[in-house]
Design goal:
Length: 532
Amino acid sequence: MIFFAMKQRVAILDALGRHWRWMLLAVSLLGMLALVRSTPYGPGLVNDSATYIEGAANLIAGRGFVRLSGGGEVKPITHFPPLFSMLLAALGLLGMDLVAAAHLLVTLLFGAGIFLVGLCIYRISRAWPFALLGALLLAVSDVHLGVYAMALSEPLFLALMLGAYLLLAQYANEAKVRWLVWSGLLLSLAALTRYAGAALYVSAVLGLWLMGRQGKRPIAVLKEWGWLAAGGLPLPLLWLIYQQSASQGALGNRLVAWHPVPFSSLFEALKNLLTWAAPDALLATTPLWGRLLSGLALLVLPGLLAWLVWAAWRRKHSPAPALAWLLALHVPLYLAFIAASLSLFDASTPLDDRLLSVVYLPEMVLFAAGLAWLWKIGVGRRTPLRAVVAAGALALALFSLWDGVSAVQQLSTQGLGFTHEGYRESPAVPLIRDLPPITLYSNKPGAVYLLTGRNAYVTLTPVDPVTGLARPEFAVDLDEMQTQVRGGSALLVLFGLRGSSDAEEAALFEALSAGLPLAADFGNVTVFGVLP
C-alpha cells in the first residue's frame, strides 16, 4: 500500500512537471489580474510618464521624439531613450488612447516579467516547483506591484534584461553565434529603454569572459565580444549620435559634474536590498524582523562577490550555471553603475524601489534557485533540511500573498500620482483646460499636460536638483515669471506645495507666489495670476 501510494505521488509529480509551464502562465495571468485590480483608474502617472506619453503623441503627429514647452517651442527629448515612447506610439496608431496604451503595455510586461523570472529559475535549478515559487513571489510582490503600477519604462527594461541574460546563457550552453547576436540586440533595446542599460553590457562582456570554457584562447573571447557588439551596438550608437547633436554635447541632457552620492544614501539602499522579501504584516508586529532583514540585506553584496570568487575558482571541476553567473555579476555591477551615475550625472535620482527593482529581480531568481539547491542537497539525509526549506518557502509565499492583497487594496483606493482622486477630480483641471491661449508655469508641468493636455514651463528651484548646486539665475528668472503673471500674460499653477510639511517645499511656495494675486485655490492645486 505504501509502495503504491509512493508510485502514485511520483506519477502526479511527473504529470505536473510536464505541464509546469502552463502553471507558470497561470501565475503570470494572476499577476496581471492583480495589477489591473491595483489600477482601476489607469496607471500611475508622474512627470516622467508625461515625457514618455508626450513623446509618443509627437511621434504620432510627425514631429519626432520631442516635447513642447510652455510657449510651444519644440524641444528634443534626450534625457529619456525613445523605445518606450515608440511602443506607445505604435499602440496609439492603432487608435488607442496613449494612457490606456501605457496601462495595457505595462500589464503585459508584468506578465512577461513573471514568466521570465520563472523560466530563469528553472534554467538555473531545473526545479519547476521553485520556478513557480519565484514567479508567485513576483506576481504578488507589494514592492513590484507598486513599481509596475506606474506608466514608466522599468517594466520594459526588466523584461529585456532577463531576456538578454537568458539568451546569453543559452550561448554558453550551445556556443551558437546566433544567441550572441540576439542577446546583443536585446541589450541594445534595453539601452534604448533606460540609459542604465549600459551596465548590462558590462555584465555580458565580463560574463562571457568568466564563463569561458577552460583553455579557450583569447582570440575566441574577442570573437564572442565582436558578435555581441554586432547585435548590441548599432542602434545605441545611432541614438547616441542623434542625442549628442540634439543636446549639444550633454550626455543624456546631463552635464558631467562631481556630486558624490552621500554614503548614508548608499548604506540605506544596501539595507533595503531585501525589501521585496519583507513580510509587512510580521514587521508591523515584530520590529526585530526588520532589523534582522536589514542585517541580512547588508550581506547580499559581499555574499554574491564571495560566491563569484568561489565559483570562478571551482569552474574547472563544477562550473556554475551560466545564468547564475550573469545575474550574480549584474547585482554589484548595476549598483556600481548607479552610484557612478548619481555622482557624475544626476544627483536628483532617488534610490527607491523603482531604481532598485533592477536588482530585486535577479535577487529573487537567485534566492529561489538557492532554495532549490538546498532542497536537492537534502535528498537522502536525516537532517531536517528539506523540512526547513519547505517551511521557509511556504511562509514566504503566504506572507507575500498577504502583502500582495493588502497592496492591491491600497493601490486601488484613489489612484496613483497624477491619477490620484485629488488631482483627477480637482476643479482646477477644467479651469486650466478651458483657458484661452495663455502662458502657463508650474512646478509639475507633467501634471498640467496629462490632466489638461496643455503645456507649461517648469518653475525653477533655487538649487539645481541634478547637480545640487545653487542656480545663480534663479532670482532673475523668478522676477521675469512673476512680472508676466502680475501683468496677466501668464498663470502660475502649483501642485501640492501650499501647506506642505516639508520646509523646502513650503519655502519654495512662498518664493514662487510672493506678491502674486491668487486666482483660484483648490487646496492641492493653487492658481496665481489674473484669469482671462
